[in-house]
Each structure stands twice: as structure tokens, then as C-alpha cells.
Amino acid sequence: MSIETMFPENFLWGGATAANQIEGAYNVDGKGLDAQDLMPFVTKEERNGKINMDLSWEQFNHHLNDESGVYPKRFGIDFYHRYQEDIKLFAEMGFKVFRLSLSWARIFPNGDDEKPNEKGLEFYERVFDECHKYGIQPLVTLSHYETPVGLIQRYNGWESREVIDHFVRYATTVFKRYKDKVKYWLTFNEINVITKSPYTGGGIICERAKDPVSVGYQGAHHQFVASSLVTKIAHEINPEFRIGCMLARVETYPGTNDPADVLLAQHENNLNLFFTDVQVRGEYPTYMNRYFEENGIKIQKADGDDELLKAYPVDFLSFSYYTSLSVSTHLDGEASEGNIFQGKVNPYLKTSDWGWQIDPIGLRTALNDMYVRYRVPLFIVENGLGAYDAVENGQIHDDYRIDYLREHIRQTGEAIKDGSDVIGYTTWGPIDLVSMSTSEMSKRYGFIYVDQDDEGKGTLARLKKDSFYWYQKVIQSNGREL
């Protein structure tokens, strides 16, 4: 099936991962523990339809010292030892870009060490060199839910302003080390998640917070400041660097055409886009003043913070998009399942195996709305379908994944035709990896199957799915052949 929409000639096709979900080797070559190393596997029955990505102080200490539990993000898919094999497969698909994160604790094991771990730096150097061997550009996330455990213990993560300096030291170290190997950088993955799950987004344990009501937004403010500081430093180290922010974009619709629902949807979209308003426009939007006041949220700023945010905004806006939400002031209507973002069931949409509503047109809407709002380049750095895959005679026929991605890519092309400046698209994740929200392996996203179960058992053999060959053709045709 072909479409007329032409993607830009230099469009960046690829896939996206995170260190904590693929690397493994959690105790190898001097790596310290990070927040995700303490997240255990929880069965579907134990979850009972609920996702909890935060830890209490008691749970944190239990998991820190537990020798018997299953912690899938500690073993990942062993990318640490198999990166050459995996990058070769990405190259076979024709990737122009590979998004990955650096494990802060692999480079600064405690987060606040004075000197970096050379073996950690060398590992990423090898990974980048392997990418360049095939003409693949690395797109590097500095912080992808991987707050070092040492910073959680000493500072309660990003609640403390002191963490900014440690992040700046870490970022400066890698900017200098990889100034000729990496062009595209993201500061904080899905920065808005810190207000939904403070532990995930900022290594914050709420019961330890001085102000639990405000701590998510306070942590976000510290990340805003850190982002601006490292954007300034990055451009000084290499003017060719391009620094982006990263948002979990959730397009929100009114559940009915009741004006109260329209107003509620506008409010929810503003709460979602608040983070990019700060990082792209360089200032706190006035609409948040009332929200902060009515919800008892107090942000502590230092002198010069607002000027810093204004002076050093990001160069481009990247975001994840998986689903849309509907909201309503009316009490009737079934609540949708899914991740930490909740809404009402939209009867016009299908759902995934995990209850996430599938809405390709919502991606076009999101792209057009954000381009009109910000007028900066947009980069879709996560989009994909988590599903159960069955191996049949050594093959995986994942037409459902192809259908999902085809329609989202089609709508991306339509948004480009509408006039939105979209510079790239990286699917989540190009190879099966450990789920961020549930630590499952059985929730599979990849074009490449990994023989491993939820408890880490399996051969780790890689197997190409039908979608592997489909995406290969998409890239070869620059989006014309879907």
C-alpha cells in the first residue's frame, strides 16, 4: 500500500530504547544501582488492573537489599553484551537514528561522585562507534527514569536542588566525551511523569518529601533549571549540538460536546503542555497560576531561575505518543484502562491487549497543535504497540503491530502535509525489552523478538518478526510504502 505523502528527504527513521530496559549488567564494570533496578516484577493478578510505579521508603529499602526477588530491569535483554548484534539488526532495517539513554549510574555510580567511571564511558563510546559504522545517528537521552540510588538516599532525588549540580557535572562529562559522536540529545524523558509518579520521574519518595503536595512540580522545576543549564553548556561545547525536551503527550478530548467537557479537556491539555511551555517558550504559563493556588502547590525558585529558563530554551520538541484520552464532567461512562494517564472510554476507538486506546488521528492532531503552539521542529521519539506475540514454527506474524504503526505513520505524513515540521520518528521499542510500567517481558513492542520470559528465563536469541521486514520497506521507501 502506498501513499502520496512524501516525508522529508533527511527524515530520521529509527527506534527508541532506554538503558534500564535493555542493558542489564546492573552490577558489571562499576555500575551503581538506579531507581529502576529496584522495581520488581509484579504478576497481572497482583496488579489487579492497577499500575503503581512509586515506592515507599520501606519498599525501597526492602528491594535494595532483597536477594530473592525478580527484578527484570537488572538483566534487561543483555544489550550490554549484545549491542553489536542488535545494532547490526537495526542497520539491516535501515535505521537512520537509534535513540538510547545513558545510565547515569553507569557513569557516576552514586550520582554525585567527583570522577566518572571510565568503564561506563568506554561502553557508550563503543556503542556510538558501532552506530556510526552503519551510518546510524545516536539520539541520546540523558535521564530516562534512571536516577541513581545514591541520589535517592541522600537527597530524595530531584526534590533537592543540590541534584542539579550533580546532573550538570554528569551532562558536561558526556557532552565533552562524545562531542564528535552525538548530535541529538534529550534532557529528561517524559518530564511530565514526575508529577504522576515522582519516584519514576525524579527518584522522589513522597513520604520523605517536605511538601508531598508540591514535590512533583518542585522536582520538575529543578529539572527545568537543569535542562536550561545543560542546554547552555552543550552549545558552548559544540554549537552543532541539538538539545530537545521530551514530553509524554496525551491528546485529551471532551467526552461530550457539553461546554463544561470542552473546558475540562482544554484544562487537561494545558496541564500536559505546561512542561513544554516552560522548556520551549522559556517561561511558566499564566494559566498555571490558578492551578497552583487552588491545589496548594508552592514552587520554590532561586533568584535568576526565570531568566535562565528564558535564555536557554530547547532547540526541538520530542514526545511519546501511544494513546489519547477522553474526559467528562459527567459521572457516567466507563473508565479506560492503560497507563498512569486515565480517562473515559472512547467508543470510537479500539484498544490494545493492555487496554490502551488506539488513536492514530490523535497523533496528527497532537503534531498540528504543538507545531502551531511552538513553531519548533517536532520529533516523535516513542510510538508503538505493546502486545502478546506467539512464535509459530520459528516465525512471528504480528500484523496487528504493522497495522498500528502503519496508521500512525500515515497520520504523521498527513501532519507533515498539513505543514508541521516533523524531523523524525522512532518506534518504541525496535527490539523486545522489559516494560517500564509493569516490568514485564511478555508485553512486547519490537520488530525483533527476544527469547526471554517475565522471570528472565530463555536463550536471549533474537528473531525477526514480520514487522521487521515491513519497517525495512517503510524506511527504504521513505514512508511511501506502508
TrEMBL record:
GO terms for molecular function: 6-phospho-beta-glucosidase activity. InterPro entries: GH, GH_1_N_CS, Glyco_hydro_1, Glyco_hydro_1_AS. Its EC number is 3.2.1.86. It is an enzyme of class 3 (hydrolase). The active site is at residue 382. Keywords: Glycosidase, Hydrolase. It comes from the Bacteria. Pfam families: Glyco_hydro_1. Belongs to the glycosyl hydrolase 1 family. This is 6-phospho-beta-glucosidase. It comes from Sporolactobacillus spathodeae.
